[in-house]
From TrEMBL:
Source taxon at top rank: Archaea
Organism this protein belongs to: Haloterrigena turkmenica (strain ATCC 51198 / DSM 5511 / JCM 9101 / NCIMB 13204 / VKM B-1734 / 4k) (Halococcus turkmenicus)
Pfam families for the chain: Rieske
Name of the protein described by the UniProt record: Rieske (2Fe-2S) iron-sulphur domain protein
SUPFAM superfamilies the record matches: ISP domain
GO MF term list: 2 iron, 2 sulfur cluster binding; metal ion binding
Entry keyword Translocase: no
Ranges of residues in domain Rieske: 51-124
UniProt cross-references to InterPro entries, sorted A to Z: Rieske_2Fe-2S, Rieske_2Fe-2S_sf
This protein's UniProt keywords: 2Fe-2S, Iron, Iron-sulfur, Metal-binding
């Protein structure tokens, strides 16, 4: 595994929130991504035959309602009953499939990123993105992280 692509320890992926980090697709600027434990979580032995990767999902942190708007408020998206909740207009996304199950973009899917678990560590292994660092993108764009957005 490429150590530069390390996201976090598997055991540090929270059950009620997400791990927020930055990626680049090689073009100008950075984008945000969120790593999330799916319904079965990352603790315990999981279901027979299930891999560590089956218990995780990774998405770009942008809503499918207004695609320049981040799902979270800057510290990772909140979770409710296995679903990610967009902090702006309350859309729900299934944490495992990325499908919007409720809200203005119902039926749309989040953009997925590939991750791999090796020796208890989660790595970004997506051909289209490289890991940049932990936490949110540091920019002056308050529009997507802290302001109320009008539909
Ligand atoms: S921006 Fe996510 S529901 Fe409107």
């Amino acid at each position: 595994m490429d150590a530069s692509q390390r996201i976090t320890a598997l055991e540090d992926v929270p059950a009620e929130s997400t791990v927020l980090f930055r990626v680049t697709d090689g073009s100008d600027g950075e984008q945000e991504a969120i790593l999330v434990a799916t319904e079965n979580g990352t603790g315990g032995d999981g279901i027979d035959g299930e891999t560590d990767e089956d218990r995780l999902a990774c998405w770009l942190n942008y809503c499918q309602h207004l695609t320049h708007i981040k799902i979270d408020k800057g510290s990772g998206a909140s979770m409710r009953n296995g679903e990610l909740v967009c902090a702006n207009h309350g859309a729900y996304f299934d944490a495992g499939s990325g499908e919007c199950t409720y809200g203005p973009c119902e039926g749309a899917y989040l953009t997925d990123l590939e991750v791999t678990v090796h020796d208890g560590t989660v790595y970004l292994t997506d051909d289209d993105y490289e890991y940049v660092g932990a936490g949110p993108v540091d920019d002056d764009d308050d529009l997507s992280s802290s302001s109320n957005v009008k539909i």
